[in-house]
Amino acid sequence: MGASKAFISHLLPSSSLRNSNNLNSKAKPIQVKVPISKTPLQPNTNRRLLLFSLPLIPATFLLFTPPPSPSNSNAHTAQKPTSLNYSALATFEPVSPEEREASATNSRRVSEAVELLDKGRELQAQGDFNQALQYFTQVVEKYKDFAFSDYARVGRALALYEVGDRDEAIAEMEDMSISLKGYPEVHAALAAALYVDKHALLLAENQFTIATLLDPHYTDLSYVKETKHWPPSLVSSLQHFISLS
Q: Domain 99-243: which topology?
């Protein structure tokens, strides 16, 4: 192992320290031998390299494997329907004969009820309230299972007020004011009848308020006479109520 000489110029000899008066004197450099190793230093510890390995998934497992196809004989059997299947499809009917007959009967009853209702309204417009009462009564008695039979009850109540019992007519109107609540004609007719025949001003005012809020035309006597074809007696009652006479 060799050694090299290195000069350290900042170190002064001990004689210069004792001589404080001679600061400008030159000091001789002292040679210090520093050993220099020619071989590189070896690390004290060894680093270990850890290798992490992942299991490899075969590519064949990532591919979709179709289900096995049926045999030729089974596929041929499934694709070719038998004559029994053809006959079953030909004889299948979604509606039974009983249901078809019931539907035809119901349609016929609806047509008959509508025809009677229209006939009653036609007679009412002509002023024949006796005949109109008969047609309206038929609809109410024979076809009360239909919802539109309530409108026949309104016509029947108006006809009853003219040619029949006024108490029965008012009772019919009161019933219809509940079942047909919001139908302005029945509320207006009930208001007129309550005021004239029952002298119930407060109840009449309530019914007439409902009617006019729904249809303001009922304040016009010509409307109920010419458009709604009210009987003369009910038109007169409405006139008395409006004028409070």
A: 1.25.40
Mention every residue, 6+ apart, whose C-beta is less than 8 A from residue 116: 135, 138, 139, 143, 152
Q: Could you read off the pLDDT of 35-68 as tens digits, one per residue?
A: 544 544 454 444 444 444 445 445 444 444 555 5
Adjacent-strand bridge partners of 190: none
Residue recorded with tokens 């400008």: 24
* CA atoms in the 13 A half-sphere facing the CB of 103: 6
Domain ranges within the chain, ordered by starting residue: 99-243
Give the global pTM.
Answer: 0.61
CB 117 within 8 A of CB 140: no
Q: Token pair of 150, please?
A: 């309530």
Contact 2, 21 (CB under 8 A): no
- Amino acid identity for residue 55 in this structure: P
Encoded amino acid at 162, one letter: E
pLDDT digits (tens, 9 = 90+) for 117-163: 999 999 999 999 999 999 999 999 999 999 889 999 999 999 999 99
